[in-house]
Design a protein that fits this description.
about 400 residues; alpha+beta; Aminopeptidase; 13-stranded mixed β-sheet; about 35% helix; about 25% strand
């Protein structure tokens, strides 16, 4: 399934600002900017063919590029077949990547003295294929199309990376369902390691009470009910669900920053503009859950809809009351309850905070990183070092999930 040939080699190259172009055995790969692709039908359709309900579609990438900066340089690969037809557009971005950002305390402690003398030690300019704020996807309509994209990229990326002065190439957080399409990377020079996984929970029940009764252990049910009682005994907490939080963005962003600053692991940092635009420009995919007590915002959750699933993407809490009121569990119950009322079958959650998700009987949803250095010698070393630096290594809770082996194994 190809896209219409709206670009020819000549017509595309006449508009690109950045002339990087690599001819491969299957066609041509161009590096483009947002301005080069924004009006093209091929970009407006990007990702919608393979996943009609995909929550993070082409609109999302524009919002991310224009609101989450952090030194990221956003670009797009345009993939043409030999007939000049655009078969896919694949987002990527460039950044200075700290190689030990996801490593354990032991590794970071060992590197810290060296960085006092060499501040950029183990920090490399990196080309990342995927999304700066979310998991990666291929702009493919099926497995065969995805394999064609992967083959094109695998051949072009070394030249592209060097032309952009990137020392390392990473395919960022691709769901494990892409392993067949991306096998050419794992077999030819790239090391596949697990990123911190998302989690997935079946919520195909009439209500939260039925889910607790049928799924959770007696001990977990008792603990949750005790937490819910503590919340119920306090001043009433009122839930509001909105598509646009622009009027309350200062409150919402403040709660988000509370959670962000407490986390030991960071990548993207959301801005107020991102939070406003997501709801305004993608109201069909975005839901904001706001919890107020005595008129004050004490918690919020940014969720996105994808088919029969709801994705709990970002959480914000007022820690002056969050722990005493067990707000995390209160928000979880309300989001899942709302989803059940709307016929949603799956609750998916972002990485970290795995202990409660384990007891709630969630499964891991593995995400993969494919990593290579542009230098063959450095890549030889990197392959042997990466297993000691990958981000899941230090998390003992992950190993307790029944499908933990899938982080490393095949689908």
């Amino acid at each position: 399934m190809g896209m219409t040939g709206e670009f020819t080699v000549e017509s595309f190259m006449s508009v690109v600002r950045s002339p990087q172009c690599v001819e491969t055995a299957r066609g041509i790969v161009h590096a483009a900017t947002w301005q080069d692709i924004e009006s093209r039908e091929s970009w407006k359709r990007a990702f919608s063919r393979s996943f009609p309900d995909l929550r993070k579609d082409s609109r999302y990438y524009r919002i991310v590029e224009e609101t989450i900066l952090q030194g990221f340089e956003y670009r797009y690969f345009v993939l043409e077949n030999k007939a000049g037809e655009v078969r896919a557009i694949q987002p990527f971005f460039l950044l200075a990547q700290d190689l030990i950002a996801g490593a354990g305390n032991a590794v970071q402690s060992g590197v810290r003295p060296v960085r006092k003398m060499f501040s950029t030690f183990l920090t490399l300019r990196t080309m990342m294929i995927g999304c700066a704020a979310g998991e990666g996807h291929l702009d493919g309509s099926d497995v065969e199309h995805g394999q064609w994209i992967a083959a094109m990229l695998h051949e072009a990326l070394p030249t592209m990376a060097k032309s952009m002065k990137a020392s390392m190439v990473v395919l960022k957080e691709f769901p494990s369902s892409y392993r067949r399409q991306l096998q050419t990377f794992a077999d030819n020079g790239y090391t596949r390691i697990p990123s911190l996984p998302m989690t997935r929970l079946s919520i195909d029940y009439a209500n939260f009470e039925e889910y607790m009764t049928k799924v959770l252990s007696k001990v977990t049910r008792k603990g949750l009910r005790r937490k819910f009682k503590a919340t119920a005994d306090a001043d009433q907490i009122v839930l509001e669900v909105r598509e646009d939080i622009t009027p309350f963005v200062d409150e919402v962003h403040g709660l988000y920053m509370n959670v962000y600053n407490r986390s030991k692991m960071h990548f993207e940092k959301l801005t107020k503009e991102y939070l406003c635009r997501l709801g305004r420009e993608m109201p069909d995919k975005t839901r904001y859950f706001l919890w107020r007590q005595n008129g004050r915002l004490v918690a919020f959750s940014l969720c996105m809809l994808q088919g029969d699933s709801i994705y709990d993407e970002y959480l914000g809490l007022d820690y002056a009351v969050a722990l005493d009121l067990h707000l995390y569990f209160h928000t979880l119950r309300d989001v899942i309850g709302w989803a059940m009322e709307h016929g949603i079958k799956w609750y998916c959650s972002s990485a970290l905070n795995y202990d409660p998700k384990l007891h709630l009987k969630s499964d891991l949803a593995p995400l993969d990183l494919y990593v290579a250095h542009t230098s063959k010698i450095a890549n030889f070393v990197l392959k042997r070092v990466l297993p000691w630096m990958e981000p899941t290594r230090g998390d003992k809770v992950l190993k307790q999930f029944k499908n933990y082996p899938l982080l490393w194994g095949d689908e």
